[in-house]
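Hi F.,

I've been meaning to write this up properly since the lab meeting, where we talked about keeping a consistent format for the predictions we share between groups. The idea is simple: the sequence comes first, exactly as it goes in, then the structure tokens exactly as they come out, then a line or two of notes. No screenshots and no reformatting. I'm using this chain as the first example so we have something concrete to point to.
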Amino acid sequence: MTSETRCGFISILGLPNAGKSTLINQLVGAKISIVTHKPQTTRFRILGIRNVDDTQLIFIDTPGIFSPKKRLDHAMLASVWKAYDDTDLTLFMVDVQKGLSPFVLELIEKLVKKPKQLIVLLNKIDLVKKEVLLEMSQTLSEMGCETIFMISAIAGSGLSELLTYLENHSPFGPWHYPKDQQTDLNERIWAAEITRETLFLKLHEELPYGLTVETTSFERFDDGSLKIDQTIYVERVSHRAIILGAKGAQIKEIGMLSRKELGLLFGCPVHLFLHVKVDEKWQEKRSYYQELGLDFPKS
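Output, unedited:
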């Protein structure tokens, strides 16, 4: 790459369910971050890469900002601010349906005062009246927000203009990743995330937030197929029963849905084997945090 190339690191911040993961998938043009109705679905930073002409845009999807309680919550929140510190530009997403809550305004006020450029994205604009958007935009402008985009991440509205802006405001420098790379996620974690997404989408409110999925083996065969073994960890025996279902019917369907999604992701037949274990202390294991690149908080 010549000195005329640009490379920008861009963090995506916001409250839970603001649309951050949907946005990064749209911007990258591939599914690299799972999307569910559950708050705090994203637990660690997800990196997505978009190459446009001479510019490489490196997006960092982050967990939703909330008040932490457990060890994992604190680790997730720490990863948000680390991503902010490590990037050139910051996108702060606002769910316009939920509006400018006191917490959102507090966060934006703090970010506006920092030297790093803040770009506010008013998301889900197709779901509210134009007058509401104009009022919110006026409020943000009065707070010192100089750059505001109105978008619909799920529909793709306004993203072309956003990309052009990011291209023009990324610093000059060499690219950090090869032209054909879209993420730095390793395949084992990526596969685990797909199954975790399937669990949340299939079981909805039946299943508590306190579960995780670990890929225990990931093997490629000569015929091009994959064999993936995964363990689903839950905190209670009753949670295990929910996932298994009557005579194992639920886990079979989850396996079928996840297998199909994994086949699309990796572009080959997938042999998926799921196991469910009860471990009420899984959130206290240092190895879990290390695998996801999270700090291990003291409490």
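Notes:
The two ends are 45 Å apart (CA to CA).
The longest strand covers residues 211-220.

If this format works for you, I'll send the rest the same way.

G.
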